[in-house]
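Changelog note: in this version the structure field was regenerated for every chain. One regenerated record is shown below for reference.
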Amino acid sequence: MEFFFRQRWHDPNLAYAEQQAGGKKFIVFKVDLVKDLWTPDTYIYGIKSIQTVQTDSAVPASEGLRISPNGEVLFSTRYSDYH
């Protein structure tokens, strides 16, 4: 089974002035950066193992990490569940 997993949280340490980003409503980062951020501890009941779905694209459209000026973080990725 494959599924999209999205998390949204607020981290005031990541807040920035919108002018610093050229007036953008959010900044998009490489998903690899998420390993350097605090993330919520999430448990998915009933899944014994899980892995990120690999694609041929350098930055798959199914993955994303963006941060808004107020410190709101949106993380999205696609996983496969193998029982």
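Spot check on this record: The chain has one domain: 2-81. The mean pLDDT is 79.
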